[in-house]
Amino acid sequence: MTALFALATSLLWGLADFGGGLLTRRMPALTVVVVSQTIAAAVLGALVVATGGWSEAGPRLWFALAAGLVGPVALLSFYQALALGPMGVVSPLATLSVAVPIGVGLVLGERPGLLQAAGIAVAVLGVVLAGGPQLRGAPVQRQAILLTLVAALGFGTVFALIAEASTTVTGLFLALFVQRLANVVTGGAALYIGMRRGAAALPDEGLPWRSVPALAFVGLADVAANGTYALAAQHGPVTVAAVLASLYPVVTALAARGLLSERLRPVQAAGAGLALVGSVLLATG
């Protein structure tokens, strides 16, 4: 069950990143984040009311709140790093986020077997290569590397926090709702500050309403991914769940190949293959 839920997480996150990447070509990235997360929060709020999730309120919600505050900071750092580029360095470096939940799992006493340890190493290498690392070219700005490391630390922290946010399904709905509310408040505040400084929140023609379904998909897929990751971490070792969940860059690359006809570089194809081998080792170890 851990492998199944974690792989579902990779699929959902990968598709959400792909959709978010397309949307940021039409509107500011922060607007995409705030609008998509607002839609997700509304849906989760309805689920909490329908399932009586408020009865699950307790100290664990602090983990969800913390995840909601850290997430937007990590995402904005990542987008700023991508703007400074090059993407071929930033994207693979961000996969270091998996080190945080793995470290937490080891501190809590998890000890993967030999086969699983090999699977972790192969899968992480595959994910890095699938991002298409830039091995030569112009030097990378120190600020881009710093921002990418901040983003990686933030993403990994969200991984670790959301795994501790609930122990039941109804509690998970409430935890994800609290996380999304914090996302919206934090992202909305950043958007407001940007607007005060003269940044545009929307394209010149306003919000393209035909993009609303895509925004909803991005927000809901991201929420679902957080939920399946929490379930994966509850059903098995966090070290295994975190690595399998981190395969989402492979999904994003394959989606770009299939839907946009973007050609995979040889290093990306090799990375996708290694990630698959690593996931098999983890699932069977």
Structural overview:
76% of the residues lie in helices and 0% in strands. It has 285 residues and is mainly α. Helix 8 packs across helix 9 (212-235). The longest helix is centred in the middle third of the chain and has 28 residues, at 169-196. It is globular, with a radius of gyration of 18 Å.
Could you give a quick summary of the protein structure above?
With 285 residues, the protein is an all-alpha fold. The chain contains twelve helices and no strands.
Regions with pLDDT < 50 over 5+ consecutive residues? none
Mean pLDDT: 81
Outline type? globular
- Could you tell me the radius of gyration in angstroms? 18 Å
Number of E-type strands: 0
User: What is the percentage of strand-forming residues?
Assistant: under 5%
Keywords:
mainly alpha, 12 helices
Set down the secondary structure blueprint:
Layout: H1 2-23, H2 29-51, H3 61-84, H4 87-94, H5 99-107, H6 114-130, H7 142-163, H8 169-196, H9 212-235, H10 238-245, H11 248-259, H12 266-284
Helix pairs in contact: 1-9, 1-10, 1-11, 2-8, 2-9, 3-4, 3-7, 3-8, 4-7, 5-7, 5-10, 6-10, 6-12, 8-9, 9-10
